[in-house]
Amino acid sequence: MKKLAPKINVTLKVWRQKNPDDPGHFEMIPASNISTHMSFLELLDTVNEQLTQEGKDPIAFDNDCREGICGMCGAVINGRAHGPEKATTLCQLHMRKFGDGETIAIEPFRARAFKIIKDLAVDRSPFDQIIQAGGYISVNTGGAPDANAIPIPQDVAEKSMDAAACIGCGACVAACPSASAMLFVSGKISQLALLPQGKPEAAKRALSMVRAMDACGFGNCSNHRECEASCPKELSIVNIARLNREFFKASFFSAEK
Amino acid sequence: MNWLMSTLGSSIGKKLMMALTGLGFIGFLTAHLAGNLTLYGGSEAFNAYAEKLHTLGPLLTLMELGLIAFAITHISTGILLFIQNRNARPVRYARDERAGGRTWSSVTMPYTGFIILVFVVFHLLNFSFVDKTNTTIFEIVSSAFARPLYVAVYVSVMIVVALHARHGFWSALQTLGANHPKYMPTLMVLSLVFSLMVGLGFGLLPIYIALRV
Fold first, then answer.
1. Which residue in A3, A196, A234, B21 has the fewest CB atoms around it within 10 Å?
2. Structural domain boundaries of chain A?
């Protein structure tokens, strides 16, 4: 017979906020008999079922794919964006990482640019505004271009792919002591700036995306490197250095204004 | 010139100004330390160095004006960044743990910067804006460090300067875009070496003078 997963009892110290204007508060919610095989989101599901049965408001939280690739979930668990495990989204964090009797602090991603919609659900649409400002390339419609018409060295393609691993979850902003969005923007700039297809609009892109980022009210990068340490896709701050170079190139050496 | 203002006014532009002025101060600290090392050579060597420095005349004044301009830029931009970064997260985390990035040096930058500013004023009042007609700079320095309080203040502030430079040096290079997996590890070590050099180089001088007197 299969051995059952050990069960633990934990207490959630979870942020509750009715709406964006509510000041919000912490609520202590006990969760007993939690299987250590559960993911963190399954813990929240279980607690929400319990809350619903008690006639209470369930905890609102963002989630979608639950396999670590969509970038929808995320919360600050015990002071760490996506929790204590490295290179892991919240949905891939398991309860075996927590001890029996532990009190777990759960807070939403906090930043002025990220409005809290309810409880742990956060509006990350400023990221969309940044992408709309220039996180794309312009391609004429028509027949599909030949896949290998433009030769790209393997190492360059790899670097671009590493930057493109960003799932836009917002953990970089949440973890940054200055609530800066530089790692996100640097990933989106780098994935295009490295490739020939991204070059024609590189200067315009760098200027527009940085301006959009500033307009959203994110903080200024202070090179603390908390973003890199918290990123579930392990984006490197090498990308931030590249973003800075792209921005300086565009500002001082291009005709773009 | 509109483009220049919008470049410098952007988040990356402000970091650029911090980086360039910061690197300027790193250059200044290196020159200042090199000069101060003449203190180990005794009264004559140090006084000769001071005299030589002043023979530079207008060039010295120009460099001083440059330092003042750098200081004004570094301080005003720093204050602006500090306020903006605080405002960027109006509700703080109840629990905030280090994920492995920030260091003692990086999180204290605004505060160590402020201490350094206060110290610079104190330092200039001690050794620069003093009546030097009937005395030599070496005598002024010796009598200052004969007081244990001065030694304590100078030594502890040098630790603060080392902390500030520890993050400042590599951070300035990162802001300028000089980060590459090939040489960044070396730059990080260089940053540590520089901060130790500044901390020990300047920090041991008051102790040496105090024990010598």
1. A3
2. 7-115, 124-138+152-253
Q: What is the pTM of this model?
A: 0.95
Contact B89 A79 (CB under 8 A): no
Q: Which of B1, B3, B93 to mutate against chain A (most A CBs within 10 Å)?
A: B93
Chain A within 8 Å of B88 (Cβ-Cβ)? yes
pLDDT at A74 over 70: yes
CA-nearest of B211, B207, B201, B190 to B38 is B201
Domain coverage including residue B74: 14-87+107-212
Q: Is residue A12 within a helix (H) or strand (E), and if so which, with residue range?
A: strand A7-16
pLDDT by residue (tens digit) across A135-171? 999 988 888 888 888 999 999 999 999 999 999 999 9
**Which of A76, A238, A252 is nearest residue B179 as measured by Cβ atoms?**
A238
Cα–Cα distances (Å) from B29 to B24, B76, B82, B133, B161, in that order, read 9, 20, 24, 27, 10
Q: Which residues contact A231 (CB under 8 A, 6 or more apart)?
A: A87, A166, A171, A172, A183
- Total domain count, chain B: 1
- Is B170 inside a domain boundary? yes
pLDDT in tens, B77-131: 999 999 999 999 999 999 999 999 999 999 999 999 999 999 999 999 989 888 8
The pLDDT of residue B25: 98
- Nearest-by-CA chain B residue for A171: B99
Spatial separation of the C-alpha atoms in residues A191 and B198, rounded to whole Å: 39
CATH superfamily for A7-115 is Beta-grasp domain (3.10.20.30)
Indicate whether B163 belongs to any domain: yes
Segment B126-157, tens digit of pLDDT: 898 888 888 899 999 999 999 999 999 999 99
Q: Assess B175–A contact: CB distance below 8 Å, yes or no.
A: yes
Find, among B201, B165, B203, the residue nearest to B31 by Cα: B201
B1 touches chain A (CB under 8 A): no
B84 interfaces chain A, CB cutoff of 8 Å: yes
B94 in any annotated domain:
no
Contacts of residue A224 in chain B, CB cutoff 8 Å? 101-103, 106-107
**pLDDT of amino acid B1:** 72
Q: Is residue B26 part of a domain?
A: yes
User: What residue of B is the nearest CA neighbor of A25?
Assistant: B94
Q: For domain A124-138+152-253, say whether CATH 1.10.1060.10 is its number.
A: yes
**If you count them, how many residues does chain B have?**
213
Residues of chain A with Cβ-Cβ distance to B181 below 8 Å are: 236, 238
